[in-house]
Design brief:
single chain, alpha+beta, Thiol Ester Dehydrase, Chain A, five-stranded antiparallel beta sheet, 32% strand
Length: 170
């Protein structure tokens, strides 16, 4: 495969913050209802306050998938939060071609209307692989977002992986 794509500078950045803490703000009840409707998941726990009061949660809560709408990589147009391409990576990636390779989520605490969420982002990992012909060498970059509520409790962890690849060499 030749010389490694991963430099000492890249290795040193693993586990380090990418930018500061992003304040997503207070969770709005109407945003939860719009999100649930948009993804066709109108579970009454997400959209009906009276129903939520009668559950073990004591109120309506956010669908676990709602967190995707507040991570810095998904809020590209708010003017304040970085996309992965702008997330203060302290190195240049060797290839311009790329694609999203997946998301992984862990949920720990329910999110309720009114909760104030913050997101911290670190460079989670970097690895390389050899792709099939036409793809060439591939660099995988994983960014980890930790989402906390106003009590500093971790409510969710989001791991986002992007692949940059060499492309045709002919």
């Amino acid at each position: 495969m030749g010389e490694s794509l991963i430099t000492d500078q890249m290795r040193a950045a693993i586990g380090k913050p990418l930018g500061g803490t992003y304040v997503a703000g207070a969770v709005d009840r109407s945003a939860l209802q719009k999100f649930a409707t948009a993804v066709s998941d109108t579970n009454p726990l997400w959209v009906d306050d009276e129903y939520g009061k009668g559950t073990r949660w004591g109120s309506s809560i956010a669908p676990p998938t709602f967190m995707i709408s507040i991570t810095p990589q998904s809020t590209m147009t708010d003017g304040h939060s970085p996309t992965l391409e702008e997330a203060s990576l302290p190195f240049e990636r060797p290839f311009k071609l790329g694609f999203a390779a997946g998301d992984e989520w862990e949920s720990f605490k329910p999110v309720r209307p009114g909760d104030v969420l913050t997101v911290t982002t670190i460079l989670g990992d970097i690895w390389e692989k050899q792709g099939r012909p036409g793809i060439g060498r591939m660099l995988f970059v994983r960014v980890d977002n930790t989402i906390r509520n106003q009590r500093n409790e971790v409510v969710s962890i989001h791991r986002y992986t992007q692949v940059n690849y060499e492309g045709p060499t002919e």
